[in-house]
Amino acid sequence: MCRHLAYLGPPVTLAQLLLDPPYSLFRQSWAPRDMRGGGTINADGFGVGWYPHGGAEPVRYRRAQPIWSDPTIAELAGVTSSGAVLAAVRSATVGMAVLDNAAAPFAEGRWLFSHNGVVRGWPDAVVPLAADLPIRDLLTLDAATDSALLWALVRHRLRAGADPGDAVAEVVAAVAEAAPGSRLNVLLTDGRTVAATALGHALSLRETPDAVLLASEPHDDDPGWRPVPDGHLVIATAGRARLRPLGWVSSTPG
Ligand code: GLN
């Protein structure tokens, strides 16, 4: 299962966030400490999206190769800083395409999105949900993957003006019901707030007075990390995180 993280707080370099910590996302690409539901390494791509200072819309860099084999990310990460970042390393689910476009974060306007997990019974299980989307959205999916479809479902609600926490909780609930046993850890940010879910996979949270970090696994031994209980939604801004039960969890992820 992929690994992902979201950060809001004072500007840091991408290197400080993604490369330098002892159990960084970079390291998690070949030595994750907590893989579940198949897969051992996260070598099928990576992506990072960040909000430039003063810019409303994020910039992205995504590749369909292991993060350790890309020379550009190390150079870029050393000289790029931001106070809002969403990044992921990918372990493609069996049968799903390995392409730049299949790597998170997915994006539109000011939004960035990532999914860590799998939709069980893909794609048949979610055909009824996909049927609610305009055909244009289906024809322009980033990739033919479960994560890209989840993003299309969330994006559809955001376009209609939904609250980001509601959009995420609603889609996760609908997919969990249609595809029992799915693992649905998602991250959604606009650079000011992060909405995150923990369902079927680990998610950890570290709050400091002026920053918040959500990650699939703690990237250092700081005692401030705490696990987000399974079946919860997190709404976080820099320095403040609120948790609430998703409330409808009925099936054990497979
Ligand atoms: N199923 C998604 C994909 O193939 C996410 C994979 C993961 O979390 N390992 O991209």
Automatic annotation (TrEMBL):
Give EC number(s), comma-separated. 3.5.1.118
Sorted keywords for this record are: Glutamine amidotransferase, Hydrolase
**Mind telling me what this protein is named?**
Gamma-glutamyl-hercynylcysteine sulfoxide hydrolase
List GO molecular-function terms, semicolon-separated.
hydrolase activity, acting on carbon-nitrogen (but not peptide) bonds, in linear amides
Q: Where does the Glutamine amidotransferase type-2 domain lie?
A: 2-254
**Which biological process annotations from GO are given for this protein?**
ergothioneine biosynthetic process
**NCBIfam families in alphabetical order:** ergothioneine biosynthesis protein EgtC
Metabolic or biological pathway, per its Swiss-Prot or TrEMBL entry: Amino-acid biosynthesis; ergothioneine biosynthesis
Quick check: keyword Hydrolase in the entry?
yes
As for what it does, the entry says:
Catalyzes the hydrolysis of the gamma-glutamyl amide bond of hercynyl-gamma-L-glutamyl-L-cysteine sulfoxide to produce hercynylcysteine sulfoxide, a step in the biosynthesis pathway of ergothioneine.
Q: Which SUPFAM superfamilies match?
A: N-terminal nucleophile aminohydrolases (Ntn hydrolases)
Domain of life of the organism encoding this protein = Bacteria
Pfam assignment, any one: GATase_4
Q: Which reaction does it catalyse?
A: gamma-L-glutamyl-hercynylcysteine S-oxide + H2O = S-(hercyn-2-yl)-L-cysteine S-oxide + L-glutamate
The family database entries (InterPro entries) matched by this protein are listed as: EgtC (IPR017808), EgtC-like (IPR026869), EgtC_Actinobacteria (IPR032889), Gamma-glu_amide_hydrolase (IPR052373), GATase_2_dom (IPR017932), Ntn_hydrolases_N (IPR029055)
